Amino acid sequence: MIYQGQSLTVELLATGIAELVFNAKGSVNKFDQQTLTELDEATQALQVNQDVQGVVVRSDKSNFIVGADITEFTALFDMPESDVLVWVAKAAQVFDRFEDLPFPTIAAVNGFALGGGFEMALACDYRIADTTASVGLPEVKLGIMPGFGGTVRLPRLIGADNALEWMTTGRDNKAEKALAVGAVSAVVAPDKLVDGAMQMLQAAIAGDFDWQAVRKEKQSPLLLNANEAMMSFSTAKAMVAAQAGKHYPAPHMMVDTVAKAAGLGRDAALKIENQGFAKLAKTNEATAQVGIFLADQLVKSKGKKLAKSAITDITQTAVLGAGIMGGGIAYQSAVKGTPVIMKDIAQPALDLGLAEAAKILSKGMARGKVDAKKMAATLNNITPTLDYSAIKNVDLVIEAVVENPKVKAMVLAETEQHVADETVICSNTSTISINQLAKSVTKPERFCGMHFFNPVHRMPLVEIIRGEHTSDSTIAAVVAATLKMGKTPIVVNDCPGFLVNRILFPYFAGFSKLLIDGADFVAVDKVMEKIFGWPMGPAFLLDVVGMDTAEHASNVMAAGIPERLQKIENDPVTVLYQAERLGQKNAKGFYDHSVDKRGKPVKVAAELVYSLLAPHCADKQDFDKDEIIARMMIPMANEAVRCLEEGIVASAAEADMALIYGLGFPPFKGGIFRFIETMGLARFVALADKYAHLGAIYQISDGLREMAASNQSYFAQ
């Protein structure tokens, strides 16, 4: 044994080849500080061993190395930029020293080799992958860039254009694609991987492969003349500007880094990479995106843990109500392989539900993501019916009828009479109290809320709403079913609007108050989209939600939380609703909606809306962008804080993920709690106090004031 560590070992075989094997204690190999240190020690041991003629780097797990240990990033990013620069330079030099070993090296890549894992493979002279392999540099998804030599070695292997596409999108690349561009040297079957690596390495040792020339190419300037460089980097900059926009600095930094380093050798190029990494690590966007990753891991782990505890296996589902929402839920169950019975009281509704599922599948076929076999299997998994007797043997019933408490109560009571005693019953409601609806069933312990977001097939979030009598086994079963449907469950407690809508409607109230004070809805939308980063501004979002839905939900919120969410006099949403301007559903809302010649949606600010609102609003005036953002976001943040303080949601991380998955909260801001933390709790309190005169939704809680005063964090470990 040449080297024995906790995460990796190096053993010399009789052939003179050393095997460097990654085999960490956990389920996957990661580059944490311990592993980096061990790699450096192993490299030094190889350097001085006179018997080693070559090294095979491989994994003893089902994946090669999945990347850096992101749990260590929070502490790293808290350091001053100069300290981050020192850290990343030292870490990168570990890979340089490995690359400089005086004999050929090869990586045998299986499963995922991502981020630092792929950079380990790039530091080898050759890479052989098996057919299970996926390689890539996904650091952009964390708001950073490769820091262990990826921006230097990959462009010199596969060309600057290919490398920048890989790095700025962060996508994984299957083995065959990697082979086609030269990122790996060969692809073999899994059972041939180690033997194939040994054979290639022996050929290099024998001189059949010029490994020194291969290594020199990775360490030399890029082979681009001035015109080629200008074209390549100009194209890359334009692509990044179009796809990433201005809110994500990492892909822009990658292009600049590769461009600046193009004419340099390895060591000088790596210094530029080190500097770019350190700068990005200190950005708010990196902190936010790393926070999202960790929050997502938390949500997923909690979901998996709950699902494992489920004692009810959901093998047959029923959906009651076959409208757009019911059809979407039925599709989601069916496409993931769980047969579903779709029940309604009218045949036209069933036809609509089936048409909704077929429409989603047809769009998938048009994009090449669904084949005829998948379409047939999915539609065959949906059984339409008008008869309650068809649901008698299902494991889970999801009620998705009209958003009316009396109608839902009646349907739930009827449903309970037609299903088995152990059947779990859920209501897909966006605002109606689960505790109230539970009164319509005789066994409330098997009842909970299951709030899907529209469109169901696109929106990843499902809120699982626990009523006061809901059993743990019911929650576990519904979480398991949600995961089986390919969705992300977040468990919340019952309250008006639950979590997402309760946080959303104060935001809408802030918008209404702005309009009443004379703001132009187009100007507000522009600021919230272009400056803050929402996918759509509040006026456009209300058009998508529907003015009738928003009016109904705001009435529910006003009744449930009258101290803050009482109805606003002359609310612009109510004015539009009464004028039958419902939004996209009837092509008339704040905007007039149509489609162009290519069938793409078009929206134009409706002049009639200005006339409708004029009698109820102050004269039009311009508001500063910072004031618009403050007046929109303070109410949302305040309500999120209250939800956490009241135990509606278990953690700030889960609240952040709920808003990202349920509303499209700008990921580069990391979620509503990350938004508050980035501003600083004390600064947020001062800003909110500045607008406290506008009403209760701008007044912060005592708990937040105390946290700010004592310099606490919502993300304390």
The helix/strand class is: alpha/beta
Total number of distinct structural domains: 3
CATH homologous superfamily (4th level) name of the largest domain: 2-enoyl-CoA Hydratase, Chain A, domain 1
* CATH fold annotation of the largest domain: 2-enoyl-CoA Hydratase, Chain A, domain 1
Quantity of strands, as a count: 20
Helix content, binned percent: 40-55%
Indicate the proportion of strand residues: 5-15%
- Shape, principal axes of CA atoms: globular
* Average of per-residue pLDDT values: 95
The largest sheet is: 8 strands, mixed
Poorly predicted regions:
none
Enzyme class: lyase
Organism: Paraglaciecola aquimarina
Keywords: Fatty acid metabolism, Isomerase, Lipid degradation, Lipid metabolism, Lyase, Multifunctional enzyme, NAD, Oxidoreductase
Family: Belongs to the enoyl-CoA hydratase/isomerase family. In the N-terminal section; belongs to the enoyl-CoA hydratase/isomerase family.
Report what the structure shows.
The protein is of the alpha/beta class. It folds into three domains: 3-282, 2-enoyl-CoA Hydratase, Chain A, domain 1; 313-494, 3-Layer(aba) Sandwich (Rossmann fold), CATH 3.40.50.720; 501-709, N-(1-d-carboxylethyl)-l-norvaline Dehydrogenase, domain 2. The strands form four sheets. The protein has an eight-stranded mixed beta sheet with strand order 13-12-11-14-15-16-17-18, with helices on both faces. The chain has a seven-stranded mixed beta sheet with strand order 1-2-3-4-5-7-10, sandwiched between helices. Strand 1 and strand 2 (8-12) form a beta hairpin. Helix 1 (33-48) packs parallel to helix 3 (81-99), helix 27 crosses helix 29 (672-679) and helix 29 (672-679) packs across helix 30 (681-690). The two termini are 39 Å apart. The mean pLDDT is 95.
